Amino acid sequence: xxxxxxxxxxxxxxxxxxxxxxxxxxxxxxxxxxxxxxxxxxxxxxxxxxxxxxxxxxxxxxxxxxxxxxxxxxxxxxxxxxxxxxxxxxxxxxxxxxxxxxxxxxxxxxxxxxxxxxxxxxxxxxxxxxxxxxxxxxxxxxxxxxxxxxxxxxxxxxxxxxxxxxxxxxxxxxxxxxxxxxxxxxxxxxxxxxxx
Length: 196
Description:
Elements: E1 5-7, E2 17-20, E3 26-28, E4 39-47, E5 50-52, E6 56-65, E7 68-71, E8 75-77, E9 83-86, E10 89-92, E11 96-98, E12 103-106, E13 114-116, E14 124-126, H1 128-132, E15 134-135, E16 139-143, E17 150-152, E18 158-159, E19 163-167, E20 172-174, E21 178-179, E22 185-188, E23 193-195
Parallel strand pairs: 1-3, 2-4, 3-5, 4-6, 5-7, 6-8, 6-9, 7-10, 8-11, 9-12, 11-15, 12-16, 13-14, 13-17, 16-19, 17-20, 18-21, 19-22, 20-23
């Protein structure tokens, strides 16, 4: 299926939801689950763009997108559930959270780089404000083994308030001051580490 899939009404219940819209778009407008009564597993196997305009609370959530992720309402995962977001462009204007589960954000396209709190770089760009909207007591991973170079911390100081792993197949460059506020921070790349 390559058609658009809109969810305009409130979705509830504990059942799981799997979506494959091919090259179509997925839009959540109504609320999906609540913090006290999350839905089951939500999996978006394939889509172009995903827009979250209604708050989502699920037991776990994953989205694989060839286009853009727009988060305009809270996207939350209960308990130790995982949250994985894969897209070449992201706009995170609302909280992204898991209580204690792992959170992963990475580009869709193999070899595409990431920029975290470094607006001068290209690729999947996440601002310091967007990074601050992520919360979990678990591990947050930026990138993957197929991700290109990751650029960290431009001209402004950057502090990340959770355990973090930066994972890249194309190298990691730290361009400014980055801190962990007492949390663990790990750089993983099979290629090289480049510090400036």
